[in-house]
From TrEMBL:
<dbReference type="InterPro" id="IPR008259">
    <property type="entry name" value="FMN_hydac_DH_AS"/>
</dbReference>
<dbReference type="InterPro" id="IPR037396">
    <property type="entry name" value="FMN_HAD"/>
</dbReference>
<dbReference type="InterPro" id="IPR012133">
    <property type="entry name" value="Alpha-hydoxy_acid_DH_FMN"/>
</dbReference>
<protein>
    <submittedName>
        <fullName>Alpha-hydroxy acid oxidase</fullName>
        <ecNumber>1.-.-.-</ecNumber>
    </submittedName>
</protein>
<dbReference type="InterPro" id="IPR013785">
    <property type="entry name" value="Aldolase_TIM"/>
</dbReference>
<dbReference type="InterPro" id="IPR000262">
    <property type="entry name" value="FMN-dep_DH"/>
</dbReference>
<keyword id="KW-0288">FMN</keyword>
<comment type="similarity">
    <text>Belongs to the FMN-dependent alpha-hydroxy acid dehydrogenase family.</text>
</comment>
<feature type="domain" description="FMN hydroxy acid dehydrogenase">
    <location>
        <begin position="4"/>
        <end position="352"/>
    </location>
</feature>
<keyword id="KW-0285">Flavoprotein</keyword>
<keyword id="KW-0560">Oxidoreductase</keyword>
<dbReference type="GO" id="GO:0016491">
    <property type="term" value="F:oxidoreductase activity"/>
</dbReference>
<dbReference type="Pfam" id="PF01070">
    <property type="entry name" value="FMN_dh"/>
</dbReference>
């Protein structure tokens, strides 16, 4: 009897059905899902489809160089791993596999506070790390997390600001998936043998950002900025970088696509701080469009989880390799020598709905 094998994924989207076939259905839904009607989840990818690229020809640039420096950190390409919780649901090696893949690929991993192994264990895997933080109302505990991230070698703090409460994920309600399975927990929240409750608090405000500035000398990146006025406030409060993001459509539904907010945020900050973008990035051309609209780099969330579910470290590595190859190809076809060479002059406008 011959054993049939599924064709290997040839792009990031192919990884999703391959991951789905391996995952517990409730865990797949946790990763794939978004808030309520998932209008924003769909909008994120659709926004990239609407934008067109108009390549320049005969520029003789040779093969593009992909390296970038973001907030003083060099990376092999303008693509980061966005922070995503609970990697142990995707693979037994959990965040360690993701971190090893990031190290191998030379990209920055934003380690989620809600990881299923500790930040110290992730740091031991050798990747360039930033640490994502949900500021906890218990500021002493938050400060202790910041110290641990600093001591583990994280080079920036990413403060997720779009989560004063948890978004309403109805797939989770249907699956009754409200707790992690036995044996899996938020490893960073463990204290004296007990796991602390994670608090997403509507009391968190700019005052806490000011407090954090006093508490750490690490650069602070604010994640979840969509409104130009908030972008201006962030700069006023001394924030070092922004991530234009709607949390992959998992928080407030019917929020616009993050790509559609990027030019407004870019205009508001006028180049004072670097901008990153996440939400719906699935193709090399998506990265080019994000760069053209003002981002210094883009981040991927779900595609890395799909890679992790399919083949652990090797799966995440393959996802990054496919995206790297697509980005290099897209830049070459655009006549661009590097990410810095990408300007809005390459954009042909929004051509179709
Ligand atoms: C997330 N995201 C997220 N963000 C964050 O700041 N802290 C977190 O703990 C998580 N957890 C999380 C879990 C899962 C399963 C997903 C899919 C996403 C949001 C993430 O950082 C990023 O904003 C989006 O995932 C980007 O969109 P794409 O690439 O998934 O479309």
């Amino acid at each position: 009897m011959t054993r049939e094998t599924a064709p290997a994924p040839v792009n990031l989207r192919d990884f999703e059905p391959a991951a789905r076939a391996r995952l517990d259905p409730a865990h797949y839904d946790y990763f794939a899902g978004g808030a309520q009607d998932e209008i924003t989840v769909a909008a994120n990818e659709a926004a990239f489809r609407r934008h067109t690229l108009v390549p320049r020809i005969l520029r003789g640039q040779g093969a593009p160089r992909l390296e970038v420096t973001v907030l003083g950190e060099s990376a092999s390409m303008p693509i980061l791993l966005a922070p995503t919780a609970f990697h142990r649901l995707a693979h037994p090696d959990a965040e360690r596999a993701t971190a090893r893949a990031a190290a191998e690929a030379g990209v920055i991993m934003i380690a989620a506070m809600l990881s299923t192994v500790t930040i110290e264990q992730i740091a031991a895997c050798g990747a360039k790390l930033w640490f994502q933080l949900y500021i906890q109302p218990d500021l002493d505990f938050t400060a202790s997390l910041v110290r641990r991230a600093e001591d583990a070698g994280c080079r920036a703090l990413v403060v997720t600001a779009d989560s004063p409460a948890l978004g309403r994920n109805e797939r989770g309600d249907r699956n009754r998936f409200h707790d992690l399975p036995p044996g899996i927990h938020c490893a960073n929240m463990e204290e004296e043998g007990k796991v602390r409750q994670v608090v997403l608090s509507p009391d968190i405000s700019w005052r806490h950002v000011d407090w954090l500035k006093e508490t750490t000398s690490l650069p602070i990146v604010l994640k979840g900025v969509l409104h130009p006025e908030d972008a201006r406030l962030a700069v006023e409060h001394g924030v070092d970088g922004l991530i234009v993001s709607n949390h992959g459509g998992r928080q407030l539904d019917t929020v616009p696509a993050s790509l559609d907010r990027l030019p407004l945020v870019a205009e508001a900050v006028g180049g004072t701080v670097p901008l990153l973008l996440d939400g719906g990035v699935r193709r090399g051309t998506d990265v080019v469009k994000a760069l053209a609209l003002g981002a210094a780099a883009a981040a991927i969330g779900r595609p890395a989880l799909w890679g992790l579910a399919v083949a652990g470290q090797a799966g995440v590595e393959r996802v990054l390799e496919l995206l790297r190859n697509e980005l290099a190809n897209a830049l070459t076809l655009c006549g661009a020598a590097s990410p810095a060479d990408v300007t809005d002059g390459l954009l042909g406008g929004v051509a179709w709905k």
